[in-house]
C-alpha cells in the first residue's frame, strides 16, 4: 500500500451532515478549542489531523456530547446535525449518541460475550422486537465490522479475549449496531499493529457508504489513505480544512505545510 | 534488684561505652576524623550496641524462662494429696505465687520481717493472719505445703534475680568493652552498625509473624486440652449449647452449631442492611456525585466507621432494641419478647458495616476503567444503564470480595452481639428472638467464674479457633478475589 | 472484506428529530432518575443512621454531666462522732459511715420541717431514699480531714439518691414509682417542694469526668475518671511499642526486604492480621500474657500489649504507604552522593514520610482507644476501679479499667441510671476520638506533599 496515496473520490458537497460554528471548549481554565467553524459532509470520511494536544479529539467529543461526562468541560457555540442544534436543552444526549456513534483510541470491549457486546446498544435502544431480530442485527453489525467470519463460531466467548485488532473491529461493530448516522473515530488504530491497522482502514473505507465518518488521527499517512476531507488543528484552532488531496499537496497555511513536512508536531 | 533499675544501669553502661568507643576511634586517628573509615559516632554506636543488645536479650529470655523453671522445680514440693479435691496444679501454683507475692509485699511494707517470712518453721496460720493484716489478698488459710512452696519459690526467685543481675551487667560490660576495643582507623564501624540496625528492623518485622504464631499456638494448645476433656465430635455436631454452672463438665452440652447459626443469622441481617445502603451510596458517590457532594458525604459516612463498636453495642441495646420492641413486641405484633434479638444486633452491625461496604465498593467501582463507561455512553446508554450493565458486572468480583470482607467483619464482631443479641443459644428462624454468637460465648465463658481448666472455660478456645479459621478463610478468599480483580484492570 | 459490503443501510430507520424525546427515551430517563434516587436514598440512609446515632448519644448522655445535689447544713454532733471528747483522730476514725447517716438524715428532715412541707414522711429513716449512700462517706472524709469541725454546723453539698436524680431528669416517672421499693411518691413530693427552695439542685457534675466507678447501688457517684487514666496508660504502652516496632517493620519491608518467600509470608501475614477479629487478640493476651507469662490481670500494661499487637498491622500498612509515597528520586539522590542505603532511608526518606506515619499512628491509636472486646478477656471489667493510680508503675500494673470497658460495665448493670452514665461515657470517649482524628486530619492537610 502506498503510504502517501491520496484517495481521489467524488465528494458530494451538497449534503452537509454536521455544521459547527464558533465552537469554544474550556477545560477548567484551559481554552482547548478556539472558535472552530467546520462543515462535515455526509457519506464522507473526514480526517482531523494535528499535533498532540491540538484539540482534535476534544472537538470530536463535542459532536456526540461526550464532553458532558467530564465535569470541568464547558462547550459554547453551535453544532448542528441535520440542522438541529445538538446543544439545545431539549436534546437528550442519549438519543444523540445513538445517532452519532463513537470508536475510541483503545479498544474497549465490555467484559461480556461478543454477542452481548454488540447487542448492548440495540437492547438499550429497543431496536429489536425479538431474539431473532436481535440475532440478525448482531450478525449484520459484525459483518459490517468485518469480524463476523472470525467470531461467528464463538459469539459466547468474552469480547476481552480477542486480539487487539479484533477487539477494535468488535467495537466498531458495536458502534454500528445502533444504526448511527455519523461515526466518530478517535485514533482508532493507534493501539493496533500494522496488519490490524490495515484491516480497520479498509473497513473505514467501506463504512463511508452508509455513514459520515469523522476520524481523528495522528498519522498523516492514514489521513491521506482513508479520508476525502481533512481538517488541520493546531493549538485549538482549526487552521485549514479542505479536500484531502489539496491539504497534502498544496496547503494554504504555512503551519499546515510545516506540519505536513514534519517541522512542527 | 528490680528490672527497671537493672535496665537503667545497662543503659548507663552503654552510654559510657558509646563515649569511650567514639573517643578511642578519634584517638586512633590522631584527632582527625577523616582518617577513620566511618564517622566517629558509628564507632560509639558500635560499642553501644554491643553493650546493650546481648544484655537486654539475655534479660528478656531470663525473665521469660524464670517462672517456667521455678514452677517446675517448686511443683515437686506440692503433695499429690492437694490435687485430689477438684483442684489442679495450675490453681495450686497460682496460690503459691500469690502467697509468695504477698510475702514480698508484706516484707516490703514492713509488716513482716524478712527473717520471719523466710523461716522454715513459720506457722501457716500466723503468716496468713499477718498477711491479711498487711492488706494482702489471701484466699484461704495458707496450708503448710503451700507456705513451704511459697518460701522456696521466693528464695529461688531471689537467687535467680541476683544471678540474672550479675550475668546481665557482666554481659553489658564485656560487650561494651569489646566494641570499644574494635575502634580503630581500619574498622568498618558503619557497616557493622548498619548490619546491626538491619537485624533490628528484621526483628521488628517478625513481630507480626510471632503474633500469628502466638495466636495459633495459644488457640491450638488450649483447644487440644479442651478436646481431651470434651469429645470433639460433640462439639461440632451437638445442636445444643448449655454449659453447666458447676464447672466440672459432664452435664454440659457444648455444641457449636447453635452459636454458629446465631452468628450467621445476625451477619446475614447485618449484610441485608449494609450491602444495599453501602452499595448504592458507593454507586452514587463514584458515578453521580459532584466533587463537592462527594467531599461532604463520603467523610460523613466514614464517621460511622470510626465509631467504636461499644457505641454500636449500646445503641443496639438501648435505642434499637426498645424501638423494635415498641413495634414488634407485646404491644405491637407480638413477635418479640425482649429488646435483645437477632434483628437488634443485626441492624446495629449493619449500620457499622455501611461505610466498610461503601468505601470498598467505591474503590472497586473507581477501578473500572473509564474507557468502558465511555464506550457505553458513546452508544447512547444512560448513566444508570451504563452502571447496571457495564460497570457493576465488571466490578462484580470485587464487590463480592468486599461483601465477603464485610461478612468476615460481622462474624468476628463482639461488642454489638454481647450487648444486643442476647445470651441464650437457640436454633430458631425468628429474627426477633434472642440468639447468641460464637464471639459472645467466648466472652461469657472466659469472663465467668468457671475454673480456667474446666471444659466450660476451655471451650472458648475451641470457639476461638473456629472463629479464627472461619474469618481467616473468608478473608484470604476475599482478598484473593479482590487482587485478581485489580490485576484484571492494571 | 466482502462482509462489509452489504447493501447500504437503506433499512436504517429514519429517526425523528432530536428535539423530541420518544416514548422509550422518556421511559429510560425515568428509570435513570429512579436509579439516581436509589443512590441518594442510600447515602441519605447512611447519614440518617449517623444522625440518629449521634442524637441518641447526645440526648441520652448529656444527663450524665448533670447531677442532683442536696445542700444541707449538717450538725456534726460531738456526742456521736467523738464520744470521748478528746478529738483524737484515731477515735474519730473508728466511727464508720453508719454513724454519720443519722446526722445527715436529721439535717434533711430539718430542711423539710423548715420548709413546712406537708408530708407523711416524718421519720429520720424515711429520708434515706433521698440521700445517696455515698453522702455519709463524703461527710466522714471531711470530718477526718478536719476534726475541728466537730460540734459545728457545716453546710454540705451531698449527692442525692439516684432515683431523685432520675426524677429531676425525667428518667424516673411518677407512675413507675408505685412499683419501686426504693422510693415513694411522697418522696417525690418532697423533692418537688425542695427544688424551688434551692435545697435540691441539679448542677454540673465534675465528679463524673474525674471520679471513679461506684458499686451497683450508687449510680449517682460513678465517674469515668479512673478508667480514663487506665486508657491513658494503655495508649502510652501502645505508642511506646507500636510506633517504633511498626516503623522499623515498615522500613524493613518497604526498603530492605528482598523479594522472597519470607517477605511474602510477612506481607500476607500482616494483611491477614489486620482482619483478625479483635476478640482473638484478647484470647492471645489471656493465653500468652496472663496464663503463660503471669503478668498481672486487669493491668493496663497487658491491655496495652494486646492493643499494640492489634494496632501494629494498621500502623505498618499506613507507614508503608507513606514510605512508598516518597519518590525514588530522593533515594537515588542520596545514594548518588555516596550515602549508604541505611543513611538514605534514615536521613531522607523517613523524615519526608514522618507526617504520614504520624497520621497513621494517631488513627491507629484512636482505633485502639475505642477497642473493647480484647479488654474483656484480660479482665479489665467486672470490678470497681476505685482509686487513681499514684505513679507510673502502679498505673501500668495495678488493676484498672479502660473507658470502653467501663462503658460496657455500666451498660450491663441493671439500674437504668447507669445507662445514662454509659452514654455520658461515650460522649467523653467520642470526644477523645474526634480530637485525635481531627489532629490527624490537620497534620495531613498541613504536611501533605504532592510529588
Structure report:
The complex is a heterotrimer of chains A (about 260), B (about 500) and C (about 450). With about 260 residues, chain A is an alpha/beta fold. Chain A has 10 helices and 10 strands. Chain A has a domain at about 15-110 and about 175-260: Rossmann fold (3-Layer(aba) Sandwich). Helices cover about 75% and strands about 0% of the residues of chain B. Chain B has helices at about 5-30, 40-75, 90-110, 115-120, 125-135, 145-180, 190-230, 230-235, 255-290, 290-305, 310-330, 340-365, 370-380, 385-410, 415-420, 440-445, 455-490; strands spanning about 240, 255. Chain B is flat and about 85 Å long. Chain B starts with a helix and ends with a helix. The mean pLDDT of chain B is about 85. With about 450 residues, chain C is mostly helical. In chain C, helix 1 crosses helix 19 and helix 10 (about 225-255) runs antiparallel to helix 15 (about 340-370). At the B-C interface, helix 7, helix 9, helix 10, helix 11 and helix 12 of B face helix 1, helix 10, helix 11, helix 12 and helix 13 of C.
Question: Topology of this protein?
Answer:
The complex is a heterotrimer of chains A (265), B (490) and C (451).
Chain A: E1 16-27, E2 30-41, E3 45-49, H1 56-63, E4 73-81, E5 84-85, H2 93-99, E6 100-103, H3 114-125, H4 131-144, H5 148-151, H6 164-176, E7 182-186, H7 194-207, E8 212-216, H8 220-226, E9 229-234, E10 237-243, H9 244-249, H10 254-260
Parallel strand pairs in A: 3-8, 3-9, 6-7, 7-8
Antiparallel strand pairs in A: 1-2, 1-4, 4-5, 9-10
Chain B: H1 3-28, H2 40-75, H3 89-109, H4 114-118, H5 124-133, H6 144-182, H7 189-229, H8 232-237, E1 241-242, E2 253-254, H9 257-288, H10 291-306, H11 309-328, H12 342-367, H13 370-379, H14 383-412, H15 415-420, H16 438-447, H17 455-488
Antiparallel strand pairs in B: 1-2
Helix pairs in contact in B: 1-2, 1-6, 2-6, 2-7, 3-6, 7-17, 9-12, 9-14, 10-12, 11-12, 12-14, 13-14, 14-17, 16-17
Chain C: H1 23-61, E1 66-75, H2 78-81, H3 89-94, H4 97-114, H5 135-145, E2 153-159, H6 162-168, H7 174-177, H8 185-197, E3 200-204, H9 206-210, H10 225-256, H11 261-273, H12 278-292, H13 300-325, H14 328-336, H15 341-370, H16 373-377, H17 392-397, H18 403-412, H19 417-447
Antiparallel strand pairs in C: 1-2, 1-3
Helix pairs in contact in C: 1-19, 4-5, 10-13, 10-15, 12-13, 13-15, 14-15, 15-19, 18-19
